[in-house]
Write a structure and sequence with these properties.
341 residues; mainly alpha; 5 helical Cullin repeat like; 73% helix
C-alpha cells in the first residue's frame, strides 16, 4: 500500500506541475503534445519571474500540507525504504521539491535564468528592480537542493544553485564589467575609473547580501577583481607617480585598496614608492649641501632625512594602512642616502 500510494502521489504531482508549465508555448517546448491554455499569457522576463515565484510559494505551502497529511507514510514506509538505502525515495515534502525540479524547473530553466540575468543587469544599469522577487526565485534553487544526494548531509546542498545559477551569473557579471571597464577607461581618467571600480565592487557585495546565497560573495568578488583591477593593473600602476607627486593621498589610498585585492598587486607600486622616497631624500640632502660640495654637518644631515621619513611615514599610515612592506621602504631610507651615493 505504501509503495502504491507513493507512486500515485508522484503521478499527481507530475500532472499538476505539467499544468503549470502549459501557460506558455515557449516554456512547454520539451512537451509539444501538451494542450495550451488559450487565455494564458506568454510570460517573459519579469512576468515570468513573478509567475514562477507565485507558483513556487503556492506549491511549497501545499507541499507542507501534503507532508503533514502523509506523516504516517513518511514515518513508516518512507523511513523503511530510506533505511534500506533507496535514495530515490524521499519524505513527501522533499519528493515535492524533486518533482518541481524535474517537471517544472528543468524545462524552463533557460528562459528563467535569462530573465534573472537581465533583471540583475537592469539593476546594474541604475533601474529600480524588485530584489524581493529575485531573492524568492533564486532562493528556490537552494531549496530544491534538499532533494539531491549530498556527500555532506549536515550541509545545505548547493549543486543546483551553483550549477544552474551561480556559475552563469558570475560569467555574465564578468562579461558586463569587461565591456564597461574598457569603455570607461577610453573616455574617463584613471582616478575616475578607480572610483567606479570601488563603487562596483561595493555594489556586487551588497547584491549578494540582498538576494543571493552568501557563498556566492567570495567567487563573485574574486572574478570582479580580476576584471576590474587585474586586467587594468598597468594603467593603475602608471597613475601612481602623478598621485604621489601631487600628494593626493585620498586617491593613493584608493589605488592601494584596489591593488591590494589582487596577487601580485603592489610589487610595482612598492618599487615606485621606494624610488620616490629615495629621490626625495637625495633632494633634501642636496638642499643643505654647502656650495663647495663639502659634506653637510651631521645633525643637519640627519634632520633632513628625518623630515623626509616623517612626511612619508604619515603618508604610509594614511594612504597605505601602515603596510609593513611600505614601512620597510622607509626604514631603508638612511642606507639610501649616504652622502655622495
Amino acid at each position: 500500500m505504501g509503495q502504491d500510494l507513493y507512486k500515485y502521489l508522484i503521478i499527481y504531482l507530475n500532472d499538476y506541475l505539467k499544468t503549470l508549465r502549459r501557460v506558455s508555448p515557449e516554456l512547454a517546448l520539451p512537451y509539444q503534445n501538451l494542450t495550451f491554455v488559450k487565455e494564458a499569457a506568454n510570460y517573459q522576463d519579469e512576468d515570468l519571474l513573478k509567475y514562477y515565484s507565485k507558483q513556487w510559494n503556492r506549491f511549497t505551502q501545499a507541499a507542507e500540507y501534503l507532508n503533514r497529511i502523509f506523516k504516517y507514510l513518511n514515518r513508516h514506509w518512507v523511513k523503511r525504504e530510506t533505511d534500506e538505502g533507496r535514495k530515490h525515495v524521499h519524505e513527501v515534502y522533499t519528493l515535492s521539491l524533486v518533482r518541481w525540479q524535474i517537471e517544472l524547473f528543468s524545462p524552463i530553466h533557460e528562459p528563467l535564468l535569462g530573465a534573472l540575468l537581465r533583471m540583475i543587469e537592469k539593476g546594474r544599469n541604475g533601474d529600480v528592480i524588485e530584489t524581493t522577487l529575485l531573492k524568492e526565485v533564486i532562493g528556490s534553487f537552494v531549496s530544491m537542493g534538499q532533494g539531491e544526494a549530498s556527500s555532506t548531509p549536515d550541509k545545505v546542498n548547493l549543486d543546483i544553485y551553483n550549477n544552474k545559477f551561480q556559475e552563469p551569473f558570475i560569467n555574465a557579471t564578468a562579461t558586463y564589467y569587461q565591456h564597461e571597464s574598457v569603455n570607461f577607461l577610453a573616455t574617463q581618467s584613471v582616478v575616475d575609473y578607480m572610483i567606479r571600480a570601488e563603487t562596483r565592487l561595493t555594489e556586487e557585495s551588497t547584491r549578494v547580501d540582498l538576494f543571493l546565497y552568501s557563498t556566492t560573495k567570495k567567487p563573485l568578488l574574486q572574478r570582479c577583481e580580476e576584471v576590474l583591477i587585474k586586467a587594468h593593473k598597468e594603467a593603475l600602476e602608471a597613475e601612481f607617480q602623478g598621485l604621489i607627486d601631487a600628494d593626493r593621498q585620498t586617491d593613493l589610498k584608493r589605488l592601494y585598496s584596489l591593488l591590494s585585492k589582487i596577487t601580485p598587486g603592489l610589487d610595482v607600486v612598492k618599487q615606485k614608492f621606494e624610488a620616490h622616497v629615495r629621490k626625495a631624500g637625495l633632494a633634501s640632502v642636496e638642499k643643505i649641501a654647502p656650495p663647495d660640495g663639502a659634506i653637510p654637518e651631521g645633525k643637519v644631515y640627519v634632520d633632513a632625512l628625518l623630515d623626509v621619513h616623517k612626511t612619508y611615514a604619515a603618508l604610509v599610515q594614511n594612504a597605505f594602512r601602515g603596510d609593513a612592506e611600505f614601512v620597510k621602504c622607509l626604514d631603508n631610507v638612511p642606507s639610501f642616502f649616504a652622502y655622495g651615493s
